[in-house]
Here is the input.
Amino acid sequence: MQTDQGLWQPLPADPPPWQQGAAAPARGHGWIAWIAIIALITGAIMMTRLSGPLGDPGEDPVGLTIFQMQAKYIVGWSSLLPDNAELLYAQSKAALDMGTLPQRQRFIVIAAELSGPGEARRVLEELDDLIQNPPGGEPIELSEPQASIQRILHELYPSTVLDLDETEAAAAVAGTTAGLEPDERRVLKEHLGWFGELALAPAETADVPARDAVLQPARVLAVVLVSVAITAIGAGLVGLATLVVFIVFLFLRRLSGGLGAARAHHQIYAETFAVWLMLFLGLQLLAEVVSPPGGELLVVMIMSLASLVALGWPRWRGIPWRQVRADIGLTLGRAPLLEPGIGVAGYLATLPLLFFGLLITIGLMAIQGALGPEPSAFAPSGPPAHPIIVQMGGSDIWPKIQVLFLAAVVAPIVEETMFRGVLYRHLRDATGRFGVALSVTVGVLANSFLFAAIHPQGFVAIPALMSLAIGMTLVREWRGSLIPSMVIHGVSNGLIISILLIMLGI
Here is the structure.
């Protein structure tokens, strides 16, 4: 049926209690709330940037974790397809031979593996020169472990290998490796991890089983990554078809909006979001102070859920809880048994949006690298990533379970309730006078941008995060209930974390 709402036809809603004789809620203070929201988000962004790595030659845990996955993947494929080793090395050198000193030291081992001891020696000499003569700075003072590793690398790849052919140089390195002292072998394994084990099992080693044991995880990782990529492409094609069907149904007027009529009290929801944001950020800072060693993630989860006490604000301001739940989508929806399945379909339909968001993020990274200031010699070089990735390494299963539960359960509940529930309700009602099409557009984009901006991955990751948020917000607009958007959020985070846990555990 044609309506004055254009293509999108919102469902009728029951009149709120105060139109049925109950007292009306207090008038909201939207502008004050938005000043607080902008100030809090700006402060959160600044704190994230200030707390990041400073670019010294020390550790960069996030960048080093990502570097290890990239290097293992390349070594794995060079082991499976040895004729492509030189090509893989040429393609990866510029991207991996950078960053902090620990990362550069690990790359020397990769150079030896992919291009031979002579290339490893050349990279080692370049690193020596960079340590002594960094651009625009004083010589780098190495820590004791870093200095020990540098010395051992000189033993492994002496200058004499430059005068030998590839086979002779490999044999010489294998002999030198076999002659290392136990303490030197321990230092390599302790401080370089898998890279140290790879350095101790060079191409011409007599201990073939040891070398195979080191290379096997890299081979498995290479196969897993390719399998994930193929599966993602297939899911993306299904998602594209789902998205096309959704758009067709939209233009055929077969879909109806689920938010219901606009609420005059929507400014109170702007206040609620500001209160939640203040609580959430404050409780996260408190978690850093009170968390016991090893219990950081558990405390973060408790604090995140505790921040939902902000939902008491609209009730305190005079809106009945039943009305609050209906307004922000804390309901079972129009088809309770179908809402989770709609969430899964919504996730697939969001994948094409994510693909374009990732392309924009990659483009921004390239522009940032080309136009940004020249980084310091040992500045961290990792791509945008959530700091939680550091918690996913190691052999202890408990932190991994916590990471998965935090990402796939706690974050979807908290963030969808506040962003797609509280904040989007306010944005849609505040812009409702502009017409449905413009109101949805403004509400979806503003909501998605704020959601992306508050995450710690940095500005260049905003397009990728926004693309996911756009999908979740549109599904919230369509269904009214938060269940589908929570499912999208949980499936997305759960799959990403599970894949990372598999790759980091290999």
